[in-house]
Amino acid sequence: MNRKIDIEEIKLLLPDYITGTLGAAESDIVENAIKQNAEISKLFRDMKNALDFVNTVSFSEPSPRYWNNLLPRIHERIDQKEEKKFLKAIPLWWKVAIPVAAVILIFVIYRISHAPDEDFTQKKTEQVKESVSSEKRTTQNRADSTQIVINELNTTEKEMQNKEVQVNRRRKSGNTDEIKSETLEDQTGNQSSSDKLIEEIASIDAYDPFGLTESETTGVDEEMENEIERMSPREKDVLLEEISNSNL
Amino acid sequence: MEERTDSELIKSFKNGDIQGFNEIVKRYQRQVYWVIRKMVNSHDDADDITQEVFIKVHSALMDFREESNLFTWLYRIATNYSINHIKRVKVRNTVSFEIVSDPIESGDKKTDEVIDEERKRRVLEQAIETLPAQQRAVFNLRYYDELTYEQIAEILRKSVGGIKANYFHAVKKLGSYMKTRLEEEK
Question: Which of A43, A174, A216, B46 is 20 to 30 A distant from A1 in Cα terms?
């Protein structure tokens, strides 16, 4: 057996020899080695001094309160850890999607709570539509009436022009009696047709020729009516001409 | 009432009974604390690491297959966490006084003895801090906890021969340090 190896093995037994945990046979081997080997002897002395010193040192014991509080503190940290784990487990897109969904939901609830009454809105819309339609009809009627008047005016004008031509012709031919009677008739006719026109014009509201205002009965006011009556036939003709040219 | 075995406590916890875990903590809290305390030489650090060890136990106990006994498993976690802590923290040149939030239990000692004890503790802490983390763990488990080399080998997952060598070198270094320190004090 190699002596060196034995010495190295004996060295490893020294701490247990010092603390008294070696068996009897091994203890004898170490004892002999200490007596015979200076290196082992020196090592033994240093190690024994160290372990003797360690044996004299005591550590301050924590109080019973420390041991009683340890378990609750452990549970507290476990709970904190599990909470962190839960938050970490949520995927990133969820952490974005949840707040966004919350904002959208709040917005929708707000809109629903502040939305106008649908029935009311619908009724109002129908009323407006009806009123617009009736206004359109009224306007159309007025427009049609006006067109009729204009057509009559044009017709009357043409008739008057024809009559004038006839009168001129007859004047040229020298038939004065016929001219007078015709003139008178013409005047009467013109006058009657003029009166009709006045009535027609009177029925048209000068301020609202297409009947856009609510009242349908006003038409030409009294003052204008009086003024028209005071006009001479020639003045009335001029007025008619002006009305027809204005495309009423 | 008969005390439940470690296996029964583990089984109880796996069935959803938190009392199983609570009993384990109460049963092993002192041993775990002291293993750590003698490694890190600080009550505050030991307190923090002890909590971390049991938090780890809580999260891993469901998957614990009892291939080793609970005691060995707890010691392994405590020692590994302590070794990791030592490696993270730089070796301190001076060791500060131990500040224990609660007073020392035995309050009838004379002042000189108290001072002397603190001085010795300080010297020992300084001596322990000269040891590498592995040797420190082996020394504490063998000398203070009186575990066998086989148990220590299982805890640290090393060979028995390696553990014996670690223990020898740890005690040798302590011897050299004490000798130098005593010569300085003379």
Answer: A43
